[in-house]
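Its record is retained below.
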Amino acid sequence: MPLQKLLILLTRFRLGVPHYAALLLWQLLLSAFAWIPLYATDNPPGFHTGRGVSLYNLFMDVRAGDGGSPSYYGSWSMMSDQQRPVPIVRISAESSITIDSATVGAYGTSNIHDGTHGPWWISSAMWNAFGPDYKGTFTRGSSLVTGLTSTTNFTVGQPIYNRSDTSPIPNNPWPTIVEIRRNSIVLSRAATSSVTTNFYPGLLDGNLTAGQLARETFTYSPSTFPNNTYITWKFPSYLNGIGIYAFPGIEYGSSGYEVPRNSVPALQLRSLSSLSATWNITVNAGVDDLANCMFEFFVYSTGDPSATPGHFSSYAYNEISIMTHVGPRHMRYLKSLSNHFWFSTGGYNFYVVTNNNPAPPGQFPPQTSIVPVTAPGGTTPLSLINNGTHTYPLAAIMAKLVEMGLVNPNHYIHGAVFGMEISKNSGSATVNKLSYVWG
């Protein structure tokens, strides 16, 4: 009998030896023959590769001045009681990679340029990594900002920003907080003018690199990606000005900002026939810490994905957000919008609302949110997370948006993203299954 088959049989029966001891024994035997490790040590809880492969670890490690050594967040050993070994059918060597935000920044991606997994890639999408707005008084030539009603949520090392074209805050780089007082803060650079104005603290430094206030990690196996992708996040316990810090997700094809080397064909809305999405996701987050979980599509006037990066506002005519879960706070906002209607398809009832963003040219196009609800004509959201596998008939949903005049049938989608908008605090999710029928 070949040695590999003998070892597999011995591992299955374990010969009365505890399984972790058996694994170590076979590890030693295999090492003697210059074979690779039998088990992975970077698995998240409950994650089973089934093939003894090591995992990719993507650490969006947002750190700014915490002064400590790296804390390898989200790792889990197969030796724990949360894991059980599986019979080894085939041993394959897959190297691990680590990417942190000191290199890739808040908008970091993985797998977009090498094309290892075709059209699938990861986006950290910390688009809104800043705190709520504050009002303070700046004095030209002084680094002291006075008149603050509270300094509770400030942290030494945070950068300070101002959106105004006549900002008193010098940029390139933006100043950081060096001292916190009762109703004032001291910055690393002096103001360039004297004015009382709004400003906001960032969670990242001026180069969009890491801080202890915000963080994302992705852990995945190359052989199963995008399935079994484990995502963690950490953000402040307080809301920022818009109620969302980030949108970590798994992209498929092209976004308005990135075009992967291996993408998918652009689809014209009038020609959709079989477009659908299937998912199964397990989320661990507070009731109102997760704003939503959704599929998102941008609708473009061009069928050429390479035209949109750098010209997003010229080509994007609609932002279509098809929800799989909506938190209470976000649902209150959606119900406040006056432009809405209901429809049903594929066994689901939907409540559809659109905001009043202007059509291009503009920074962001109108956004249409499609919320599954518990009954026709209702507004109680139906959560489709933590409860198995679901499939949306996307072609039928898009056809309804065409019928209602919300999208132009001659326009295109270049790809999709499945992700979660995070409102606050820490949490995690496992994307157990994710797939599309693209056509």
Remarks:
- DSSP finds six helices and 23 strands in the chain.
